[in-house]
Amino acid sequence: MKNKFTHNIGLKLASVFFAVILWLVVTSVNNPTVSEPYYNIPVKLINTEMITDSGQVYEVLDNTDVISKVTVRAPHSVISELKSENIIATADVSEISSLDTIAIKLSTDIYANNISSITGSIDTVKLKIENKKSKALSLKSTVSGQVTSGYMVGEITPDQNLVRISGPESVIDQVTKAVVDVDVTGMTSDIVTNAEIKLYDAEDNIVDTKNITQNIKTVGVKVNIWQTATVSVNFSASGTPAAGYQATGEIIGSGENVVIAGKASAIRNITQINIPEDVLDISDLTQDYTTEVDIRPYLPDYVILANSKDAIRTVTVCIEGEISKKLQVREERVQIINLPEGYDASITGLEETFIIEIIGLSRDVATLQASNISGTIDIKDFTQERDMTDPEPGFYTVEVDFGLPDNVSLLEPVTVTLHISKSEEE
Fold it and tell me: Phi, psi at residue 342, to the nearest 5°?
């Protein structure tokens, strides 16, 4: 029996050896070991709470949390089954180095024992670790674009006025303001919308929010769109200047235009803004009165100025000293008018020629000449002033009306004696 197993032992061992070689050759030909690349494999960071629980935050630098290329060497049968999602890349924060780098570990979730090798184009994740910071910012609302001609942007009202942000201290320190912007191009009516909050630095550059946490990302915003109209602002004055002076009637700054805005129903019938006369009191003044008036309190309800710079108006009430002038008037230029039928009337007390002295502003007084001055005694006015139904016969002292312009008066009134009697025929 022993001779049976040991007989030709060398030949038998050689046969076994060649059989193994043959199996390896066949296997190598049918299922060769090959290399296969896999691209953009994400690296999962684990145990990150070791950073965040200590009040710090981290940022992955240079996109090192994505391996651009991973090469796997394995039998062809394994490679044919392996997909990118089967490549597992991890970096354990607990193993972070003093340079804030973490070694990447590569494996697969299938056929792990059949992998000959697995290598990546990078082998570490680089982190930037710093203190976490938070702050609150007032939310500023703005608009961009142009509304339709004849309209303007009114109030802009967000439904939130604060946004709270947190993140790396160096990033949070860059942020100086938070803004929501609404495009109003071509609008003619109110806008209600949600707008994205954008963060800006001190130079009005947008700050990347990738590493920033916000309590809100968008807010609701209402933008009022108001109709506009151009109207005049009119002033008048109250009071009487000092004796010997008059207001010329000219108010410099009155009648100038402003643009108002409001809902169409509020401004539809407004053509002018009239400022109350008691705003400009010229009582006892002897020279021009100049002042600034804020016209906003005198705007109609629900109406505003399109431009707040138009609110303060500078106005001047012109005041001049009076001059006097003497005119020689003939007696026959004084007439009785509106005498009812059945009555006679006559006047006495005037010389054939007499002097009247008129006072007023130079522009008004200078144009008056004796040749175009006449006096009247109006019986109709006479009876009305005395509550008479009909003239009552008798003698009366009355003033002569010379029909002077409004800003011209007599220094002393001219009086005559009026005699009224019934006609003899009556």
Answer: 95, 5
How far are the Cα atoms of 5, 157, 328, 404 from residue 333, in angstroms, in the given order?
A: 174, 75, 11, 14
3-class SS at 321? strand
Average pLDDT, integer, range 47-67: 93
**Is residue 268's pLDDT more than 80?**
yes
Give me 145's structure tokens.
């674009």
Task: Give the chain's mean pLDDT.
Answer: 91
Cβ contact 265:301 at 8 Å = no
Residues 204, 15: Cα–Cα separation, whole Å: 83
Largest CA distance in the chain: 194
Identity (one letter) of the amino acid at 339?
L
pTM of the complete model: 0.59
How buried is 60 (Cβ within 10 angstroms: 0-12 exposed, 13-18 middle, 19+ buried)? middle
User: Distance between CA 360 and CA 366 in Å, rounded?
Assistant: 9
CA dihedral 300, 303, 305, 306 (to 10 degrees): -150
Closest listed residue to residue 86, CA positions, set 114, 65, 64, 124: 114
Going by C-alpha positions, the residue among 256, 246, 377 that lies closest to residue 322 is 246
> What is the average pLDDT across 224-231?
95
CB 318 within 8 A of CB 247: yes
pLDDT of residue 426: 47
pLDDT at res. 372: 85
Read out DSSP for 198-261? Answer: EEE-TTSPBPP-TT-EES-SEEEEEEEEEEEEEEEEE---BS-PPTTEEEEEEEETTTEEEEEE
Vertex 343: Cα angle to 340 and 349 (nearest 5): 105
Report d(CA 414, CA 356) in Å as an integer: 8
- Going from the C-alpha of 355 to that of each of 74, 112, 236, 351, 352, the distances in angstroms are 134, 132, 36, 9, 10
Q: How far is CA 93 from CA 97, 102, 127, 307, 323, in A?
A: 9, 7, 10, 59, 100
